[in-house]
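A.,

Following up on our hallway conversation. Structure tokens first:
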């Protein structure tokens, strides 16, 4: 039997972590949320609980309006509880809502369950909803708009796992009355905000207005995914649509340190999009670029342009902030500035700079223990040190990576970098390939344009006996960010994939490219030596191996075991046998 229904899926944020830390408290808190908040709300709005799924619930409503009103009631009650228990642990929920066709089945005992695409989409929406928030599909918005006292912010069309069709996703705005942040004219935010002004339609065709607005909304959504820079909401920036004014003044009105503005012009079958990034405090243009494309499929073009602009803007924002932090007096540095300076040290890629980064992050975390960003960067320093061989205890550094990334995820479950680092650390520390892959999938879902997330996903797939599947992710890094700070590492990882696939000449080529980027990349030398060994180029292989020992005197089987977590012993044998052919005697 089939019927149309509104489906609500709920889930507790970081439930597994809470259970691992304090099972009794977690179960009691979950029971309290269900009996004191969820059950009364469901009863009042006519929701039918189809089934409970551990910490989650699948609920059916006859009306989309009732479903959205009920979800909003639950999340507001959860927020009130969190506020009343200030300083104490408190559960948070994610909620996803969809309207669609469902299939009803009954088992031998007459217990009813529901299935179908409508249910699957609701579950995927729940997974991408922010903690304490609600994500809904466009079918829900179409049915409830003007019928509920709520706003809806577009989140674009993120890829929903195992869902083939495109779904327009919206976040429910629970507090319509909350005004945008405002600052005095001589103030700037401690942590910089970015405002993306509505792109101007220069085509002379009002019908193209939707395309310019779509580019703007996609940029807001995509830049928000970085989590490192607050992005001013669409409602605030679109108030400036069609208006001209001084960028510095606009930045002050929106409380934004950086402003992005642009234009869209269509001529025949081509479209030109221009974008520029401006420091609102000084009025200086930090970056500008034009993009010329065939019009083609308008939505594919919109996605392509968005990825290109985001990939260019984010590094510019980070670099601008690093330069600003570097100019501040040491006694005036805050946790954010310290983290930025640490990132600049990490990107230098040498042991002295990494030690300095670690010291800066110690200060940042001491100043603000709740900074997910600082904990994520600490995980990155420990991971980089372990893999580069800049520590006498690589296993301990990888364990520290895991702990720091886990702390970052606990502080901000929507931080893509934290999930990416937790995934790679889970691979090395626990050899749990499924859990590692799940974290990397989450990181990419949170931020599809994050080059590092694709890099780590490629690493996980490589060591999980799936090198051919890893290659598209590793090559995506080169497309998303040609100036990727860890480009040498990515090229060396592509070299490893070629090595495992028996493509030894390609492995040599990629490792040599990696070394041209950074000659001290010891892992590139390791893979180069192995590939040359397999090719029978003994003299070159021995020279490459000598470089390995020069950079990493303690290189041996212990290092291989700790930092090459192959699932398939046959893949480990490819690397080891190649090194032996190069003269390695370990």
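Then the amino acids I'd put at each of the 586 positions:
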């Amino acid at each position: 039997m089939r019927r149309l229904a509104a489906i609500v899926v709920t889930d507790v944020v970081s439930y597994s972590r809470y259970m691992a830390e304090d099972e009794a408290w977690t179960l009691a808190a979950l029971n309290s949320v269900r009996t004191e908040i969820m059950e009364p709300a469901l009863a009042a709005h006519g929701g039918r609980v189809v089934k409970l799924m551990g910490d989650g619930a699948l609920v059916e409503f006859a009306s989309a309006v009732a479903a959205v009103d009920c979800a909003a009631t639950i999340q507001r009650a959860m927020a009130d509880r969190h506020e009343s228990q200030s300083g104490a642990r408190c559960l948070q929920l994610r909620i996803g809502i969809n309207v669609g066709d469902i299939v009803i089945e009954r088992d031998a005992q007459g217990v009813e369950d529901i299935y179908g695409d409508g249910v699957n989409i609701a579950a995927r929406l729940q997974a991408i909803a922010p903690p304490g928030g609600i994500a809904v599909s466009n079918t829900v918005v179409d049915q409830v708009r003007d019928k509920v006292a709520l706003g809806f912010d577009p989140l674009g069309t993120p890829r929903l796992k195992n869902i083939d069709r495109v779904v327009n996703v919206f976040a429910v705005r629970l507090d319509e009355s909350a005004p945008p942040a405002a600052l005095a004219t001589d103030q700037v935010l401690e942590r910089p905000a970015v405002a993306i002004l509505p792109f101007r339609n220069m085509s002379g065709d009002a019908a193209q207005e939707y395309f310019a607005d779509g580019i703007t909304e996609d940029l807001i959504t995509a830049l928000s995914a970085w989590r490192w820079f607050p992005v001013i909401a669409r409602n605030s920036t679109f108030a400036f649509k069609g208006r001209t004014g001084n960028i510095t003044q606009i930045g002050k009105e929106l409380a934004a340190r950086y402003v992005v503005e642009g234009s869209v012009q269509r001529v025949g079958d081509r479209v030109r999009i221009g974008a520029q990034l401006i420091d609102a405090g000084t009025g200086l243009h930090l970056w500008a670029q034009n993009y010329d494309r065939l019009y083609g499929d308008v939505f594919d073009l919109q996605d392509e342009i968005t990825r290109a602009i985001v990939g260019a803007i984010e590094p510019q924002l980070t670099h601008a902030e690093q330069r600003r932090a570097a100019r501040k007096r040491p006694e005036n540095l805050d946790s954010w500035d310290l983290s930025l300076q640490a990132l600049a040290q990490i990107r230098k890629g040498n042991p002295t700079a990494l030690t300095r980064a670690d010291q800066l992050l110690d200060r940042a975390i001491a100043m603000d223990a709740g900074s997910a960003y600082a904990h994520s960067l600490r995980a990155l320093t420990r991971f980089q040190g372990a893999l580069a061989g800049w520590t006498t205890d690589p296993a301990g550094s990888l364990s520290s990576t895991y702990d720091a990334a886990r702390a970052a995820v606990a502080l901000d479950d929507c931080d893509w970098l934290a999930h990416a680092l937790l995934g790679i650390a889970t691979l090395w520390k626990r050899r749990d390939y499924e859990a590692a892959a799940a974290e990397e999938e989450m990181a990419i879902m949170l931020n599809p344009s994050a080059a590092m997330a694709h890099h780590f996903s490629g690493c996980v797939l490589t060591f999980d006996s799936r090198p051919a599947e890893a290659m598209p992710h590793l090559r995506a890094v080169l497309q998303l960010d040609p100036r990727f700070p860890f480009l040498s590492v990515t090229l060396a990882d592509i070299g490893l994939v070629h090595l495992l696939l028996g493509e030894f000449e390609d492995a040599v080529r990629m490792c040599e490219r990696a070394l041209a980027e950074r000659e001290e990349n010891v892992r590139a030398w390791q893979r180069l030596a192995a590939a040359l060994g397999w090719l029978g180029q003994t003299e070159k292989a021995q020279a490459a191996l000598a470089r390995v020992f020069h950079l990493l005197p303690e290189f041996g089987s212990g290092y291989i075991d700790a930092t090459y977590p192959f699932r398939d012993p046959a893949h480990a044998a490819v690397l080891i046998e190649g090194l032996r052919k190069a003269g390695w005697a370990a």
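Residues 2-173 form a domain with the Alpha-Beta Plaits fold (CATH 3.30.70.1230). Curious whether your intuition agrees with the design.

B.
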